[in-house]
Amino acid sequence: MPKLTKALIAAAERPETGTKTLWDTTVPGFGVRISSGGTKTFILKYRTRNERLVRWLTIARVGDVTLDEARDEATKHRGDIAKGGDPAGERSSARKAMTVSELCDDYLKDCAIRPRPLRPNTIASHSSNIENHIRPALGKRVAKAVTADDVERLQAAIATGKTAARKPGRGGIASGGEGAAARCIAVLGAILEYGRRMKVVELNPVGDVRKLPPKSKDRFLSSDEIRRFGEAMRDAALDGESRSGIAAARFLLLSGFRRNEALTLEPDFIDYPGQCARLPSTKTGKQVRALGKAALDALREAPATRNWCFPGERGDGHFVGLPKILKQLFARAGIAEASAHDLRRTFATVAVELGFSELVIAALLGHKTAGVTARYARTPDKALLLAADAISARIATLLSPVPAAAIIPIRA
User: Fold this and answer.
1) Cα R_g (the chain), whole angstroms
2) Domain-located, residue 404
3) Residues contacting 379, CB < 8 A, separation 6+
4) I need a surface site. Which of 46, 103, 361, 412 has the fewest CB within 10 A?
């Protein structure tokens, strides 16, 4: 085996299954481990001086440090090993004493550098759950000592609003509730599962927790509620409420977009001639999403800036106060227990009422599905454009004011 070089590492192909290792000839035990997923990691294999145990020490991922830096690090470790040191064993002992707070930090770092990194919005959501709920309650606990009872107590505290607190900066208050509890426990489960893979904890206690029953997900606006919602938006505009907020609410209903997909829209993403939005990143990856003419009209009427279709009222960021605006609009319209996602569900319901297939609706909503829908999601098919036009036109009609009836005099 020749000496490891950058070119040799770059040209190395990943195995179909498991891992393979390229060994260096200059530093014994130093090499690069390549996984079937394509991840390449500098490692050092050695035998302890006293117990004569074979150890594997991870140095760093290829790209995080240079080959020369990794080789120097391996050389230093070999010097410590010759004196009786055991760097891998010391790391293992440190992991066993790792706190939940430290494990959370490592988990968030891993989310950004794993072979398929999580989207920035997802990482921000996980970080919010950690800072508002997990770290205050369990941060100082040793990770391996967390039990299912601890997780159930945290779930109950979040569900009943006991962990509610005002968040710094924009975004308002972390109010808790059953939905927040379910999301937080899911994040905690992912953190502890990461800890199990890293041998920080032996078992993931979240799997033994009795989860809160999921809420019904069949809420959508009826035709009458859509009419009242349109009237509420017109009244709010006359009262000087946020133009960005009202425009975003209208676009959500006319497009079926997810909340963050809409709020983070940039003008350059919109292809008006092609009647679509070219989204570089969504919950299910890069997509081209068909838009109806009524949805495009809503975008044209929005107070867009160079950077955002729905700009914030302060600063240079996009609009973030949609939950507050929607709460006010729903109250004006007399609509109870509705949310931003219910507008997306309403779009899908209108599509069903108009007779469109599940494949077409899934593609319009950007769901991750196989076959025809995946093709639709990459290219704005004519069938999708016709469907988007029909659905958005129907909703726009319901949102519009009802014209006054003409009075025709009747001769005696």
Assistant:
1) 27
2) no
3) 288
4) 412
Last residue of a domain, one of 150, 178, 208: 208
Cα dihedral across residues 365, 367, 370, 374: positive or negative: positive
pTM over 0.85: no
| Sole residue written with tokens 């035998």 | 47
Calpha distance 291→310 (Å, rounded): 17
Indicate whether 241 and 351 sit together in one domain. yes
Amino acid at 135: R
pLDDT tens by residue, 80-99: 888 888 787 766 655 567 89
Strands 40-47, 173-174: pairing kind: unpaired
Question: Can you spell out the DSSP letters for 202-221?
Answer: SS-GGGGS-PPPPPP-----
Structure-block tokens of residue 238: 């006359």
Terminal CA-CA length for the chain: 109
The pLDDT tens digits of the residues spanning 369-392 come to 544 444 444 556 788 899 999 999
Q: How far apart are CA 41 and CA 110, in angstroms?
A: 14
DSSP characters over 362-393: HHHHT----THHHHHHHS--HHHHHHHHHHHH
**Residue 163 has which token pair?**
């962990």
- Residue among 221, 134, 240 at smallest CA distance from 184: 134
Chain Cα centroid distance, residue 400: 34
